[in-house]
Amino acid sequence: MRKSHRFKHIIMVLLVMALAFVTAACGDSDSSKEKKETAWDKIKKDGKITVATAGTLYPASFHESKTDKLTGFEVEVVREMAKRMGLKVDFVEMAFDGMLTSINSGKVDVAANDIAITDERKEKFSFSTPYKFSFATAIVRKDDLSGIKTVKDIKGKKAAGEATTTYMKIARKYGADEVPYDNATNEQYLRDVSSGRTDIIINDYYLQKLALAAFPKLNITIHPDLKFNTRDEGVGMIMKKDNTELNKHINRTIQEMLDDGTITKISKQFFDGDDVTKKPDLKY
């Protein structure tokens, strides 16, 4: 009898231990599920997507002079995309150099600011389907072309821009002296070239074309003989590398907007009738 009682006691202890183990395992499983909440899950739950943009890059991202409303090609593409995804948009304005850090830290979900898709960036980040294609040109002084006849003359000239852009990379390639700016307005960039504080701005052709039209009295022009292949895959939104689900939803929506002509319509509104969704046919 005693042996039977002892055996039953041992069985009960083992059952209790097994139950405790299963409960603990379930608890770990639940905890694991909580930890696996994706960026897309959080965005859906909050009902909004947080997007970094400059707010100073005409016509991609700028404030209307009369209303101070944030608008521009990139801004309106994001707004329409978010609308189709059933989300609100929270724009956070910052310099380009801070956008990539903010993506990695989780401060923002996406950045949209005329950001070129390059192999170097794709190693660290994910990009949306491209929705803008262009090439690079150079703004110089109108009266003397800033002393630049060919790309060889760029060496030693003062190039304005943000340090981590593909355009500053081109300037460095040709030996220019960097003059870095932190989210400056187009007007400041252009006035500095006009006055001689800097000599050259290498940037997107469409942006430069409109910048000249906005400030016709300044002593600036697009250099007639300089065109640069940025060797990128177009412009897209940039996000964290592992946000695959978010990337999938953004890509699907962007492709819909390209297919139905919505992005072309937005492009023509902000780029003086030009359709930037088409690749330019140029020889460099």
TrEMBL record:
The keyword ATP-binding does not apply. GO terms for cellular component: cell envelope. Gene3D superfamilies: Periplasmic binding protein-like II (3.40.190.10). It is found in: Cell envelope. Residues 1-24 form the signal peptide. It holds the Pfam family SBP_bac_3. InterPro entries: SBP_3_CS, Solute-binding_3/MltF_N. Residues 48-274 form the Solute-binding protein family 3/N-terminal domain. Keywords: Lipoprotein, Palmitate, Signal. Its main location: other. Belongs to the bacterial solute-binding protein 3 family. PANTHER family: ABC TRANSPORTER EXTRACELLULAR-BINDING PROTEIN YCKB-RELATED (PTHR35936:SF34), MEMBRANE-BOUND LYTIC MUREIN TRANSGLYCOSYLASE F (PTHR35936). This is Transporter substrate-binding domain-containing protein. It comes from Heyndrickxia sporothermodurans.
